[in-house]
Amino acid sequence: MPQSILVTGGTKGIGREIIRRFAQEGFDIFTCSRHQKDLDQLQDDMKKEFPDINLYTKQADLSIKEEVLSLATAVREKFIPDVLINNTGVFLPGAIHDEPDGNFELMMQTNLYSAYYLTREFTGAMIERKSGHIFSMGSIAGLTAYANGGSYAISKWAMLGMTKCLRQELLPYGIKVTSVMPGATLTASWEGVDIPEERFMKASDVAESVWGAYNLSPQSVVEEIVIRPQLGDL
């Protein structure tokens, strides 16, 4: 029976590259997006590149709790994932003191609450079978404060704290928990900026680091992955 992975927000950027990396290893895959057309395009692309894998998709807005729970129900109809990648996120720039009203709530709901609710939906089954690996996609913004980060940085600091707590709770059950904190990565979030492409990391490098962390023996766990552009943060 193939191993399985659930990647939220898997149609673009880092999420898409993680899907490609695990597809190379024959994993069954489930992912979601707010946009059905992006899911359809992903299906077409993956069928061409990896015709033998099973890729399941569901349209869902994970800033809404009910849609997170609906996604979990749909995934359980296919499998209990061996790997859970909490990757869904949104970035809206702004300072805490004057960012638009609602930015805080949207980014906390999307970046943090979605991971909290989804993780709770699968940890019981992982504990019962005594295996699993949960990755939380954070950011260097969860390590270093910077201007104009606002509520995004708050959500990523909170994500790191939640993931540290999960690590301690789940380690007796053989379940690994890893925080992934990338720096500036060439994804749609940076479209339109006047910065040379070589200043960014490749999304495929982040995906490769996730695969490497997953592929260790049961006796070892990578607790945190901090990966930055070679020439420094942007």
UniProtKB/TrEMBL annotation:
InterPro entries assigned to the protein according to its UniProt record, in alphabetical order: NAD(P)-bd_dom_sf, Sc_DH/Rdtase_CS, SDR_fam
One Pfam entry name: adh_short
CDD domains: SDR_c (cd05233)
Domain of life: Bacteria
Membrane-spanning ranges: none
Keywords: Oxidoreductase
UniProt record similarity statement: Belongs to the short-chain dehydrogenases/reductases (SDR) family.
Full protein name: SDR family oxidoreductase
Record organism: Echinicola arenosa
